[in-house]
Design a protein that fits this description.
By secondary structure, the chain is of the alpha+beta class. The chain contains three helices and 26 strands. It has a six-stranded antiparallel beta barrel. A five-stranded mixed sheet has the order 1-26-22-21-20, with no helix packed on it. Strand 16 and strand 17 form a beta hairpin. Helix 2 runs antiparallel to helix 3. The longest helix has 34 residues. The N and C termini lie far apart (80 Å).
Length: 330
């Protein structure tokens, strides 16, 4: 076959056009995928979602005290005359603890408008001396010569035995959940062990006002009998009681720090799926000791990313670290 010069030129032009088009397409594709190929995946640790046995608890503050202890209070506002005892001193039932300055007490009562009580003090209806109701050791003393005591002020605590218990104050908002016989876990900053077991053995029949600074709340006192003790538990030390108010049940729980909130106030977690960090909206329930109860949004077996603060945006490429300590065991 014989080609004309014009035909050869046309064929070559078509070939150059095709080559140029392919080259341009290759460059465009390279520009598109190059950032994707060069971007480094974010390293993440994972938390395997599981249904865990969870028990509902109520927290209450309290103090360690002797099982056989008696608190001496002032029935009326009064002024202390003279204190006869010291902390740590042994006293017998009936021994004088402190006297009341009747004249100074009358002046205090007049100043606060309790004229009816003034008459009773003048008539000798209130004792001029406070005595020990039981024999024992003065384990706490909050009275000094000339001090003005409020009504029902705990002036002296007398300890008569070596057994220990925890006296707690239950806020009225939590009272309906507390019953006799419930178990409790006791902890304290000064205790040798992380926690001690106890049982609620007494709930007061009356409520009282408790003040922290100028803020008051209604509380009911209760007693937790310790099932185990050691020398680190000393009368007067502060304690925290976690009272179990329900039997353990299986719940999906995610630690607090794994749950985020978006701009529309929706709670979410990042879930690891196919090498990507996928945003998963969740509905949380109760705040438990180990994290949020998850009501909806997660299924057991899913992998939640434990460092969501490192994820810049949804669908970020991530690399899982299956070697992290306990990554699928928690």
């Amino acid at each position: 076959m014989k080609w004309s010069k014009k035909g050869v030129v046309l064929i070559m032009a078509k070939q150059y056009t095709l080559l140029f088009s392919c080259t341009a397409a290759a460059i465009a594709l390279l520009l598109i995928i190059s950032p994707m190929l060069s971007s480094k995946a974010t390293a993440v640790n994972l938390y395997e979602v599981r249904a865990l046995p969870v028990e509902e608890t109520v927290s209450c503050a309290g103090r360690v005290e002797a099982t056989a202890a008696k608190t001496v209070t002032s029935e009326i506002p009064c002024v202390v005359g003279k204190v006869y005892v010291n902390e740590g001193q042994h006293v017998n039932k009936g021994d004088r603890l402190f006297s009341i300055d009747a004249e100074a007490t009358r002046a205090v009562l007049v100043s606060i408008g309790q004229s009816d009580v003034v008459a009773a003090v003048t008539a000798g209806e209130y004792s001029s001396e406070i005595t020990a109701p039981i024999s024992g050791v003065i384990s706490a003393l909050d009275a000094e010569d000339g001090a003005v005591l409020d009504e029902n002020h705990a002036c002296v605590v007398i300890t008569a035995g070596e057994g220990l218990q925890i006296k707690i104050s239950i806020p009225e908002t939590k009272l309906k959940s507390i019953t006799m016989g419930q178990t409790a876990s006791i902890s304290g900053a000064a205790f040798a062990e992380e926690c001690y077991a106890g049982v609620i053995t007494k709930i007061s029949a009356t409520a009282r006002q408790q003040y922290v600074g100028t803020t008051g709340e209604t509380v009911v006192d209760a007693v937790i009998t310790l099932l185990e003790t050691d020398e680190s538990l000393k009368p007067g030390l502060s304690a925290k009681a976690e009272i179990q108010i329900s039997s353990p049940k299986d719940c999906v729980v995610v630690p607090y720090e794994y749950v985020m909130q978006d701009d529309t106030n929706r709670e979410f977690v990042y879930v690891y799926r196919g090498g990507r960090a996928v945003k998963q909206i969740v509905e949380t329930g109760k705040e438990l000791s180990g994290g949020f109860e998850i009501l909806t949004g997660l299924e057991t077996g899913e992998m939640v990313i434990t460092n969501p603060e490192d994820i810049p945006r949804e669908n970020t490429r991530v690399t899982a670290n299956p070697e992290q300590e306990g990554w699928s065991k928690r």
